[in-house]
Amino acid sequence: MRWKGFFISLIITLILIFALNKKWGSIPPLGKLFSPQIGFWQNAESVDKNYSTQIKVPGVKEEVKVWLDKYMVPHIFAQNDFDAYYVQGYLTARDRLWQMEMQARAAGGYVSEVLGSKSLHYDRLQRRKGMVSAAKKTLAAIKKDSATHTMITAYTKGINTYIQSLDYSDYPLAYKLLDYKPERWTPLKTALLVKYLGDYLTGHTSDLKNTNALKHFSLSTFNKLFPTFPDSLYPIIPKGTAYYNPSKNIKNAPEDSLWIPLKGIPFTPIMPDKDNGSNNWAVQGDRTASGNAILANDPHLTLTLPSLWYQVQIYTPNMNVYGVSFPGAPGVVIGFNDRIAWGLTNAMRDVRDFYAIKFKDSVRRRKYWYKGEWKKTKVKIEKINIRNKDSFYDTVAYTVFGPVIYDATFSGGNKDFPALAVRWTANDTTNELKAIDILNHANNYHDFKEGLEYFDNPAQNFVFADVTGNIGIWEQGSFPLRWKNQGKFIMPGYNDDYLWKEYIPSKENPHIFDPEQGYVFSANQNPTDSTYPYPYFGHFVYYRAAHIHHFLKNHNNISISDMKTLQTDYYSAFAATALPFMLNSIMTNQFPDSAQRYMDSLQSWNYKMIPQSINPTIFHLWWKNFKTSIWRDDLHYKDSLPLPVPTAKTTIEWLVRNPRMPFIDNRNTMELETLQSLLQKTFLQTADTLNQYVSDSLREWGRFNGTNIQHLTGMDAFSHNDLFTGGSRFTVNANKKEKNGKSIGPSWRMIVALGNPIKAYGIYPGGQSGNPGSRYYDNFIEKWEKGKYNRLQFFTPQDSTDNSIRYRIIFSESKNEMP
Amino acid sequence: MRSFIVFLLTGILSFVAGIFYPWWSLAIVAFVIALIFKQKSIIAFITAFISLFIFWFSYSYFIDLSNDHILAERMSSLFVGTNTPIMMCLFSGIIAGLVAGFSALTGALLRNKRQKKVRSNEHAYNSPAKSL
After folding, report:
1. Which residues pair with A304 in a beta bridge?
2. Structure-derived torsion over alpha carbons of residues A634, A635, A638, A643, reported in degrees to the nearest 10
3. Do A765 and A581 touch, CB atoms closer than 8 A?
4. Cis before residue A254, ω within 30 degrees of 0?
5. What is the dihedral of CA A308, A310, A316, A319, to 10 degrees?
6. Which of A552, A741, A763, A767 could make an S-S bridge to A776, C-beta 3.0–4.6 Å?
7. Helical H runs in chain B?
């Protein structure tokens, strides 16, 4: 009897321990996790924690001093670059280790190893894009250059020194929740992260959908539906600027240039949202109140926690730079030093083309048809480790064009279409770190230009201003020398006629220095008007640029507060174009009461997409319904091939040009729809939707379209959702919700006045710490939501008694072996 | 008095063991102490449960206070969907209490079994049947 009791008790005890020490599905090991000695409680930082300390680390050459200001931004004072990047690596890892490792995994396709087989398709896609081989080539280039070699070596050592100091109780919370361990950092991971930016910002492609469109539309209709140069335009390089003769000859398209594959492409590839956009501008000293040039930048990216950006100041005898860094990569990506400031927006030009490949054996993929014979592919076997499962081996074929992403073994579920190889500038050997290094040290426009030479992908619009009052802007990156429309559609891969042969010389990339108008700006619009000698196309957007142009043109004596006003401006130049046209096209006083009240409200609107108003919601829904009613019937055919959809700008400009344009009519109905009937019908539809909300407060734009900032794990408990923000993708203060519920918005707002001393302001929606148990995890969010800024503390060693310094860390050499 | 000593020893030694060994070392501590100290089985369970409950609860409560509840609020919203940090402290206490309690119970049952066995062996030795 007693034995029985003993055994039952023993078994219960062992089962309890076993169960609480193991991960069950998404439930973490609870015993470990809830232990106050080692579990998540150890991540709950005391709100009064004193961060001042002395840290002995192996390998620093001299003592490094770090001041932490009240925002927890580290200000690193080092005697040489090596020590500076070492400490940058150490501190970034201290604050963001899990995030940087996860993003490196996401870049290279190593996610299944920790999250299991649900990520296998994603991992395969990353490998098939060639991310790892591109990162390896880039790493070789980084190591070849002594400056970037120092950067990456020191940064990696700093991270690994930090990782080695950890045991389970110190692990960032996400490791405990997902139950795995931090891995050693490698320079390859940094290279992967550089490529990740390229993937994120140049990975969008319409080539596949465009190709499908040619099955239903003539080329001339296609060009009307998807024009490269819209009716109205404020390009980055002001209209009328003369371009010198191109040094390269632009080839004519081959005879069969409108080659169309036999079958359409029945799937939509997974790719980043094309509405990742940004604003930047610079104003010359003679247009500002202080007489100093002012530079502003706000990159719009998917907002996440931990934040994409990490603020840092790095001071060495030959550099004093402040700005945001990308956790996992050394240096400052967007920021300013004591001489110049720079900011980035995405260039939006297409640098990713697809070629149809015919394999001899579509499954083995060892040979493909090229120049009249079967040519051997290079085959790479990608091993993808999967948590709790056997590894998956994926064979990726490489052609002269590049890796074959889609083929019979990886096709989005359909094997009945040509294999597609990608030619993409992100797969080239590049060294963007070199550009970062030179920009961080730059003294003037000359140095700035030299740095840009090294920046190939993702192509960016670099805005520039310096302390002597100069401004400038460059669209920089490697751009293939195309004939008109080359690469807009899938091209044949049976010879090299269609292969890129050369790049546009970087000196001939669009740029301007100290223009007469006194300001430069970019907002993902066309870089040039149609007189630029080299053909290009891309996913350009327009309305933010139009508003920035008008604002800067109409303001003199510009102050920092004007720049804040502009960065947080909710004015929609699109609504101001579309709405008057829509209202003029219908009878606005003949709706039933339930709809008329929305119409009355809309008629008094000032086009500001502020969160407190219901007008943006009315307009947004109406436009969406209206646009859908125009295009839906014309873009759905029996073959159900995915087709591209014309932009809002193309749609409204076409309608203004021709209110009887043929696409208004619904092909599927007997009656002839008119502009008026569509507008009327869709407005009633909009009113119906709006009436489903019980009160106006629920119809407010800020409720309807508030910002979601999700934790990288997607766990709501660590996210900040439904922030009360306004804006749309057409407003300078941009805000767009992706289909998956994530928001794209200003991931960093920065304003720099280049006087003496330099005055700078900035904020991002998050906090310096990546730890959800820290008060510095999300402490900027409320201010960001309200459009307020932090003053950025730009120190020199003489400021050691400044009262905004909260904590001090001293790094010195320990006698231990190098890690 | 004995229960109080067991209570203190279990708590303190679990803390020390937790510094060097995995979290479940507290089970071994509770087990060994229950083997050494004679207690009724149910008392062994209760004493160890309370000891570890109080240790994990108060330690986490102390951390939670100095953290201004930031993390425990998030964790409670993750695990139970509400912002009740104290629940997380209770969870911690219950987890440690249960493991320690059952482990101590196991120890006590083993001890009592062995003692009884020794006693019954003595009894057998003196029994008339044996003397035959």
Report:
1. A710
2. 160
3. no
4. no
5. 50
6. A767
7. 2-20, 25-36, 41-66, 70-79, 85-126, 128-131
Q: pLDDT digit string (tens) for A147-188?
A: 999 999 999 999 999 999 999 999 999 999 999 999 999 999
Residue whose C-alpha is closest to residue A548's, from A345, A743, A744, A708? A345
- Token pair belonging to A520: 């430069």
pLDDT at B69: 97
| Residue ranges of E strands in A548-668 | none
Residues A2, A63: Cα–Cα separation, whole Å = 67
**3-state DSSP call for residue A672?**
coil
Q: What does the DSSP 8-state code read for residue A444?
A: S
B91 contact A CB<8A: yes
Per residue in A263-316, pLDDT (tens digit) is 778 777 777 777 777 999 999 999 999 999 999 999 999 999 999 999 999 999
Reference A49, options B58, B66, B72; nearest CA is B66
Q: Between A and B, how many residue pairs show a Cβ–Cβ distance under 8 A?
A: 116
- Tell me the nearest-neighbour CA distance from B112 into chain A, angstroms: 8
With CB atoms and an 8 Å threshold, state whether A13 touches B109: no
**Which of A71-91 are b and which e, b meaning 16 or more Cβ less than 10 Å from the residue's Cβ?**
bbbbbbbbbbbbbbbbbbbbb
Q: With an 8 Å Cβ cutoff, is B103 touching chain A?
A: yes
Task: Inform me whether the pLDDT recorded for B111 exceeds 90.
Answer: no
CA distance A471 to A467: 10
Q: Do A772 and B74 touch (CB under 8 A)?
A: yes
Q: Which amino acid is at A726?
A: G
Q: Is B23 on the interface with A (CB under 8 A)?
A: yes
* Residue that has been written with the tokens 């201004």 in this structure: B68
Q: Are A715 and B78 within 8 A, CB to CB?
A: yes
Closest CA to A479 of A347, A343, A346, A355: A347
CA-to-CA distance for A280 and A461, rounded, in angstroms? 8
Per DSSP, A367 falls in state E
Mean pLDDT rounded to a whole number for chain A? 94
DSSP characters over A177-212: HHT--PPPP-HHHHHHHHHHHHHHHH----HHHHHH
- Nearest of B100, B25, B27 to residue B57 by alpha carbon: B100
The pLDDT of A662-690, averaged and rounded, is: 93
User: Could you give the CA distance from residue A606 to residue A811 in angstroms, rounded to a whole number?
Assistant: 56
Token pair, residue A497, equals: 């006629």
Tell me, what's the pLDDT at B127?
A: 44
How many angstroms away from the CA of B40 is the closest CA of chain A?
A: 13
With residue A164 as reference, give the H or E element that holds it. Answer: helix A146-164
Q: What are phi and psi of A782, to 5 degrees?
A: -65, -45
Name the residue with tokens 């008790």.
A9
Report the residue from B64, B91, B109 with minimal CB separation from A9.
B109
The residue assigned the tokens 């190591």 is A143
Q: How much is the pTM?
A: 0.94
Put simply, the answer to whether B70 touches A44 (Cβ < 8 Å) is: yes
Q: If we measure between CA atoms, which residue out of A579, A350, A358 comes closest to residue A486?
A: A350
A98/A790 Cα distance (integer angstroms): 26
Q: Which residues contact A620 (CB under 8 A, 6 or more apart)?
A: A701, A704, A705, A728
pLDDT at A509: 96
CB burial string A764-774: b at 16+ within 10 A, e below: bbbbbbbbbbb
